[in-house]
Design brief:
By secondary structure, this protein is α/β, with parallel strands linked by helices. It has 2 domains: 279 residues, Vaccinia Virus protein VP39 (Rossmann fold, 3-Layer(aba) Sandwich); 84 residues, Orthogonal Bundle (DNA polymerase, domain 1), CATH 1.10.150. 33% of the residues lie in helices and 15% in strands. The protein has an 8-stranded mixed β-sheet with strand order 3-6-5-4-7-8-10-9, sandwiched between helices. The chain is globular. The protein starts with a strand and ends in an 8-residue tail after the last strand. The N terminus is likely disordered. It binds S-adenosylmethionine. The site of S-adenosylmethionine has 21 residues, from helix 2 and strand 5.
Length: 398
């Protein structure tokens, strides 16, 4: 399966110049992973990673365009409201990077990106999102920056391919500027959660969908049809629903087919004891677990972080905001690995294994929101911010 994307191109003058559909099969596309859980029935389709680029004039993969021009329902940009999280902390981390390209790998509505471009006139933006609705909103918000802001429809683990396409874009400079920052603001945006028709919310009834990219992969409803009890239980446990995982899994799978968020929320609520229902909606964790699996959120993260660190120029920074422990664990591990070069020598003794650190951690542990930030933006309360800087000389300290 090859995904196609519709990308209203933003010209260097900042005007919308047309709609181009280009399909790119990502050569490193991996089979769809469900957090390593077994799947009953046929293998789920492998998602191919597509990147439609602004001003694209032809296929990105040397001639394998599979899509023609397509019509998507593009929501009006003003329907899209997402307040950027920990904006002050993110901007202060970007303050000292050299001039060059900022990659926003989770562009969303473009809140972080617009603020960074305003604060740093020497930055240009390569913005990536897998959600076409987010791209519509971001393009409208970033139009004032003209050719400084270029947007791509892709999964962020295609970051290397997106950068290659951006460098090769028609009219681009022969000597493209270096990548000096990569930002990941993980998870879902407020509009994804708030719009019932996207199927992410247990609070409002809608189709049981949950796909960030509505053109790719199975919906949550289809995924449930393919999971067995052991696999679904393991998925729930992995996402913090330890106590009632098995009974929820059994009840949900017995109630299939489940076509709506309301039906799923109801089955989950009836599967847990009344006392447990008083401690918040029991469907919250179930919905989060399904969402992460439907979008292969954890599977895409490791290759995306590695690609980001590899793309960074010396002195460039990678900043990641994560919102649940599964994400943060991966970020911590990849950053630590890059900061130690994977060195396994005993602490306190000189390194003899030849490991070559490529980054330095910008602070110990994850930063959290201050009370003021959390009050102003409730989503910030669960945010964990980690950041690294690419070393000038790999293996040395600046
Ligand atoms: C929290 S929102 C980002 C909001 C953004 N920082 C802003 O200020 O508007 C996360 C965005 O990342 C996108 N996203 C999540 N996982 C992705 C992935 N693997 N590849 C590309 N985009 C992804 C979602 O579609 C969503 O729009």
């Amino acid at each position: 399966m090859t995904l196609t994307a519709v990308s209203p191109a933003v010209s260097p003058a900042g005007t919308t110049t047309g709609t181009t559909t280009v399909a790119l099969r990502h050569h490193r596309a991996r089979p769809w992973r469900l957090c390593s859980l077994p799947v009953v029935g046929s293998e789920l389709a492998a998602p191919s990673l597509s990147a439609a680029r602004a001003n694209a004039s032809g296929p990105l993969d040397g001639g394998r365009a599979t899509g023609g021009l397509q019509k998507h329902h593009d929501p009006a940009p003003d329907e899209f409201r997402h307040e950027p999280v920990l904006l002050g902390q993110v901007l202060s981390l970007l303050e000292t990077v050299p001039d060059g390209v900022l990659v926003d790998a989770t562009l969303g509505g473009g809140g972080h990106a617009a603020a960074a471009l305003s604060a740093r006139p020497g930055l240009e933006l390569v913005g990536i999102d897998r959600d076409p609705a987010a791209l519509v909103a971001a393009r409208a918000r970033l139009a004032a920056f003209g050719g400084r802001a270029r947007t791509y429809h892709a999964r962020f683990d295609a970051l290397g391919d997106v950068l290659a396409a951006d460098r090769a874009r028609p009219g681009g400079p022969a000597d493209p500027p270096p990548v000096v920052a990569v930002l990941f603001d993980l998870g879902v945006s407020s509009p994804q959660l708030d719009r019932p028709e996207r199927g992410f919310s247990y609070r409002a009834d809608g189709p049981l969908d949950m796909r960030m990219d509505p053109s790719a992969g199975p919906t949550a409803s289809e995924l449930l049809d393919r999971l067995d009890e052991a696999a679904f239980t393991a998925l729930l446990v992995e996402h913090g629903e330890a106590r009632f995982a098995r009974r929820i899994a059994r009840a949900v799978l017995a109630a299939r087919p489940l076509g709506t968020t309301g039906a799923l929320a109801e089955v989950v609520a009836s599967a847990v004891p009344a006392a447990a229902r008083r401690r918040g909606h029991p469907a919250r964790r179930v919905f989060q677990a399904l969402r992460v699996a439907v979008n292969d959120e954890l599977g895409a993260l490791t290759p995306a972080l590695d690609a980001a660190l590899e793309a960074l120029a010396p002195g460039g920074r990678c900043v990641v905001l994560s919102y649940h422990s599964g994400e943060d664990r991966i970020v911590k591990e990849r950053f630590r690995r890059a900061a130690t070069g994977g060195c396994m020598c005993p602490p306190g003794l000189p390194c003899v294994c030849g490991a070559v650190p490529t980054v330095r951690l910008l602070h110990r542990g994850a930063r959290k929101a201050t009370e003021a930030e959390a009050t102003e933006q409730p989503r910030a309360r669960s945010a964990r911010l980690r950041a690294v800087e690419r070393l000038v000389e790999p293996g040395t300290r600046p």
